[in-house]
Specification:
This protein has about 300 residues and is an alpha/beta fold. It has helices at about 5-15, 20-25, 30-45, 60-90, 110-115, 130-140, 185-195, 210-220, 235-240, 285-300, and strands spanning about 50, 55, 90-100, 120-130, 145-150, 160-165, 170-175, 200, 250, 265, 275-280. Strands 4-3-5-11-6 form a five-stranded mixed sheet, with helices on both faces. A four-stranded mixed sheet has the order 8-9-7-10, covered by helices on one side. Strands 1-2 form a two-stranded antiparallel sheet. Helix 1 packs across helix 2 (about 20-25), helix 1 packs across helix 3 and helix 2 crosses helix 3. The chain starts with a helix and ends with a helix.
């Protein structure tokens, strides 16, 4: 027994005719007849008395019609309640962003694009301490987090999907000769490290080998201590500082950096991914839409 069989039965009972029922359901008379025959076979009893002028319900068919009518009302009411709950559940998306990601940099681009394409819902994005992100998802205070995979712990029933590779780069400001020779470990690079102050940000917390390597070469291994170390609140502050202080910057280049002629870039490799993370029990359909949007956005950017 399925819904289309019940719809055909109800329409035939109300119209007293298979052909009229077929027209109301936008089906052929033969299809309606076949569905009703299958229903009668399943119930092992006839539901209609067939006549030249049409059809009428048998006694059993009348009782079945009463039950089917009651079930139809309950079914439609249940669908309505489910739809309301589903729409309410998917009316907002609360996004937590790692403190190591510049919300006002390039990441604002895909977030704004997603907001523009979902103008009938509420989307809220805020920075959180790394230790709070997954906890807030578990506590249902957040729907999804944008976080480096190095901050993801294995415990917890989480879904996480990478959407962008972090682009860790060394930025060098000022007029530099022989830029092509500025590779990690070169004499030219070491000379720069010795004469220029190091500029760091509060985002400079990395666990991968490349970060430890460049940090070591820029400081203790060269017996060089930076004359000035700045801790700045965001990447835009770094750019503003470079206008006044010649500096070397090591950080994630994907978010927030606009490279001009006075800043040179030496790429470093990194194994860290930026990920969307959410609790497996969260059924908010917007999460899947958001993850796909982020992957598509950065996939196009990489192309």
């Amino acid at each position: 027994m399925n819904q289309i069989q019940l719809d055909c039965f109800m329409a035939a009972a109300l119209n007293g005719s298979f052909s009229t029922a077929a027209k109301s359901l936008f089906l052929s008379t033969q299809v309606v007849s076949q569905h009703i025959q299958k229903l009668e076979a399943e119930l092992d009893t006839p539901l209609f008395i067939r006549m030249k002028s049409g059809v009428k319900l048998t006694d059993y068919g009348q009782r079945f019609f009463t039950l089917a009518s009651e079930w139809s009302v309950m079914y439609k009411e249940t669908l309505r309640e489910i739809e309301e709950a589903y729409n309410e559940m998917a009316s907002s998306l609360r996004i937590g962003i790692s403190e190591y990601i510049d919300y006002m940099g390039e990441i604002s681009g895909p977030l704004l694009d997603f907001t523009d394409s979902h103008d009938n819902i509420s989307i809220e994005g805020n920075h959180y301490k790394s230790s709070d992100l997954l906890h807030n998802i578990e506590q249902k205070k957040l729907d999804v987090a944008i976080i480096p995979d190095s901050q993801i712990v294995s415990s917890g029933d989480f879904e996480f999907l990478p959407f962008a590779r972090e682009n860790l780069c060394l930025f060098i400001s000022g007029e530099i000769k022989n830029k092509k020779k500025l590779v990690i470990g070169s004499k030219e690079m070491d000379d720069i490290c010795k004469v220029r102050p190091q500029l760091t940000t509060s985002y400079g917390v990395w666990t991968d080998e490349e970060w430890r390597e460049i940090s070591s070469r820029m400081s203790t291994s060269q017996s060089y201590k930076p004359s000035t170390v700045y801790e700045l609140p965001n990447f835009r502050s770094v750019i503003m500082s470079l206008q006044y202080t010649p500096a070397i910057v090591v950080c994630d280049a994907r978010f927030g950096y606009a490279i001009d002629d006075s800043i040179y870039r030496t790429p470093l490799t990194t194994k860290t991914w930026l990920c969307c993370v959410w609790h497996k029990q969260n059924e908010n359909r917007l999460i899947k839409d958001f993850v796909k949007h982020m992957i598509d956005y950065y996939g196009e950017a990489d192309d």
